[in-house]
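Summary for the steering committee. The consortium agreed at its last meeting that each partner would contribute one worked example illustrating the joint modelling workflow. Our contribution is presented below. We chose a case with several input lines so that the handling of multiple components could be demonstrated. No manual editing was applied between input and output; the record is shown as generated.
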Amino acid sequence: MLAAAGRFALRQPLGTAGALVVLALVAVAVLAPQLAPHGPKETAFAPYLAPSAEFPMGTDQVGRDVLSRVIWGARLSLYVGLASVVVGITLGALWGVATAYFGGISDLGSQRVVDSLMALPPIILALALMAALGQSVTNVILALIILLTPTAARTVRAVALGIAAAPYIEAARAAGGSQWRIISRHLIPNCLASYIVLLTTNVSYAIVVEASLSFIGAGAPPDEPSWGGMLTAGVQAIETAPWMVFFPGLAISLAVFGLNLLGDSIRDVTDPRLRGGLG
Amino acid sequence: MRTSRATAVIAGLLLLAALGAPGAMGQEKPRMGGVLTWFDYGDPGRLDVHAESPLVVQQATAGVYSGLLHYDPEEPTKVIGDLAERWSMSADGKTYTFHLRKGVKWHDGQPFSSADVKATFDRVLHPDFKSPKCGASLKPMVASVEAVDPNTVTFQLKFPAAPFLPSVASAWCRIAAKHVLAKYGDLNAPEAQIGTGPFKFKKYERGSVIEWERNPNYFLPGLPYLDGVKQFILVGGPTQLAAAKASKIMLWDAWPPMRKTQADELRRARDDVEIFQTSINTLFLIFLNSTKPPFNNPDLRRAVHLAIDRQDLVAKALEGAGVPCAILDPKLLGDFALPLDEVNKLPGCRQPKDADVAEAKRLVEKHHPGGLDIEVATRSVGNYVDRAQLVLAQLRRIGIRGTLKTHESAAGFAAFGKGDFTIIATQDRAMDVNDPSGVFHIVYTTEAGSNYGRWSDAKVDELAERALKESNRDKRKALYWELQRHILGRGDHASIAVGWVEGWFFKDKRLRNYTPGVTVYDNNTFMKVWLAQ
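What follows is the complete predicted structure of the assembly.
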């Protein structure tokens, strides 16, 4: 395991840096109750206190500790990012595999649904969904799932179509393999690489969409420690309390940067064409 | 009334006059022309000044209409004639006769007469017509309105009432044309904005801008000075401040006030404005819905009363610019207000909060072991969302876990009016008149226009009515003290007074002859305002 990690680090130094950032993000999210000096919603302090030894990232407009909210924000961002991506990409991948295998009218119909969903600009679709569903963290996850599912369905279907036409699938059919067996034993395992790449590259996307929705007031409720929501509050006092924008902004940038580096590296490692080149 | 004038406002006005235009009113010759740029905090949507209550509705239509009376634009505490040239009161104080100006024309050229006045007040006083401002203040006092002849109108009161003239002068009691009401049925449409005021309604682009243009046939010769007024619809503090900093607006005199940090920011950005601090005669309230769980339980309402730290809310949400806890503001209403020393010793208002919070926690635990989860509503205007987060934090301390639900401005009013909420975390209510009766008839009596919590207390209704009828000032004061003591002492009513709102405002230094009104609704016609070059 360590040797494999060492090889990965040597071959993918940027990916390793990304992995370290992601690990740190996960650690902060998991240990938020232990790491945060104060509650994320605790308004017990004076508003707009500049960064100091007591409040390293200052306080916000209602007297909350920005550091504590940034730490808890990592948990919220990761929770939203992982939950929406795991569910959305998994559903999309299963949808893609199924339509690729069965083809015909079901494929045609389901691809038009995918077309319709993908024709809408993602943030507009997310906004419409949030307006319909109401403002809550759960609904942000639901909106993201609806955004991510068609993308995953389209990508995985393309991969699965190639696999479904392969001779060994033909052979499995000829040997009397059931549909379920062919899908579960042959199609799904061969689509796993694409699935993993979709997972890793979309977590950062989900985090950015969540932050964007919260920034425009349509995401997590305002008192939740969302980095996007913190940016909105910060913009209102950008001259008076620039730290309210700087630290959540930095957190979003670091998280997205780390996740993108890691996602790109995993894509490179799992892509046979690139793998050959790197070898 | 004179003794209850707003000392804080007067001080602000004097300061403004001293700072604003030295010698301007006395020596400078008013200049014709120019367009005043102003802003509304939200999109009014509906424009019926008799049927609506948001400030933006009044702002959108203020210059279009005239009243029988109004507050003197140059001496804003003084009631003077507007469409009424003069008026008289009968010996028993129950009949008022108004003699109207002759030759006044509506913006569409039709002649104005007493029939329009009667049609207006018959409308707002009709028992089935919901008029949360003008109607709510006049209905308890006025029995009937009669047009004696085309230029004379009489009001028959139910009893001699000191607040009658100030209420008639309220910016919500504007006179609408009988033929317009007959044609449109209400005053909501932009086309129905036909008044006798200094400006004609020119344009309303939803969510963007409202414009007025000079009425060349205004009944006061030579007025208005301005060619027009342009009101940008600016939603949200950052947009409003950005517009102010970019010189897009010349005046910020209404709700929401700037906070100190915003005023400081503006001061750094512009040196062509005068920034001043004043009260806007507006009460910051929390409403509990007393008709459904959990706040149909008096213990739960009492728990919230005890838990809310008004001083902390004023310190943080208003950056200290406000008077916490008071039901009547002594700065505005003098000795009609219960002394703050007494108010600040009462449960819920006293500091430190430890004993009150402990008792509140006990009450919540008694009925909901382990606490309870509720939805907390607020409109997403001004800094309401920030205020709501502070309220949520205070409720959490006693085991009430709130989820914030934000409403767009008009949708919020609609939901609150229907009682479609559990708790409203923050809602300012501006007074229509600077009289101690105002807040009770806006918020606390059963029929109050903004009794969102649908709270009813026979003693409050009885005391408020007795105070309204009482003409002896000392007796009136005693009744209002009793009323305040009763409400604060019960501590379980559905409207929690957090504090009276003050804040920072600005005007462009070129603006002349402008003085802010005693309430946020008054003096918004700009009939005598002019722009220096």
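DSSP finds twelve helices and no strands in chain A. The CA atoms of residues 160 and 191 of chain A lie 7 Å apart.
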